[in-house]
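Hallway conversation turned thread

IA: we were arguing at lunch whether anyone had actually written out Glycine/sarcosine/betaine reductase selenoprotein B (GRDB) end to end. Turns out nobody had. So, for the record, here is the sequence (323 residues) and right after it the structure tokens. Reply here if something looks off.
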Amino acid sequence: MAGADIDESANLGFAPAHDRPVAYIERSRDYYLALGYDNPYVWAHYAEVPFAPLAKPLSASRLTIVTTAAPYQADKGPQGPGAPYNAAAKFYAVYSGDSAADHDLRIAHVGIDRKHASMADSACWFPLPALRRALARGRVGALAARFHGAPTNRSQRRTLDVDAPEIVARCREDGVDAAVLVANCPVCHQTLSLVARELETAGIATVVLGCAKDIVEYAGVPRFLFSDFPLGNAAGRPDDVASQDDTLELALRLLEAAPATRTTVQSPLRWATDAVWKLDYANAGRLPAEELARLRADNERARLIARDLRAAVVPSDTAATTN
């Protein structure tokens, strides 16, 4: 009977059962349990979600970007295409960059999908080029003088008490009307969800761009543009300007038209015709024991590197591991 049901599903043109948004909360929990960590992470979760309507037309609004990507540091090891997870490239304090300049931002320091995502085209995770094109078309009124980098902290307290207020303050200084927040790894999605909530509370409209639907919706944000892509491509497909412009346009429409808080729009763009890539990320069930042991050792090395780097920035009473 089961076989017949599967055959009938295929005959009806149904997608395979795994072709649905990856359950990153569940996947991450099972992965770290398999590595031998017996204290599952508690993800941020709110019942109430703030909502700040866009105060003026988008064509008269000043926008900024909030990113978890890190400025390239040549002395910190591999950070380009194919680079392994690189804890040495992390940052632990909010930074800001000149929106009028070009920037080399990388994502080797966070847990993106290294098997399926591209690490070569930064426009996939940092949509400043697309936002400039939108500005040239008159779609938005202005770019804020600065964009902002949010540290990816597992410590929600650190994000809420230190980093999010600092980003809110800088956005206020720049007269920001709305912010586009682009997430990368699972914890990045939580970090920027928390930042978005604080910006909305301060009266600044936000839209989160991400690929981890469960994490963002579990935290609770006003507006979320979900792209069913591998982690690290929330702003569009690599080397595909049309995809990147379409993704930003969906985000801008969401800023304009979301009827209420907790509005999620899913991009119609597909990563590939075959959705098998969704089975691979942090999937302990597809890894042999010796590979799990190697990954546990790698994780411990990265944790110690991050701890030593963090100690110079984060007070000991709020220190926590990052991803």
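OS: looked through it. Residues 58-266 form one domain.
IA: good, adding that to the notes. The chain has a mean pLDDT of 92.
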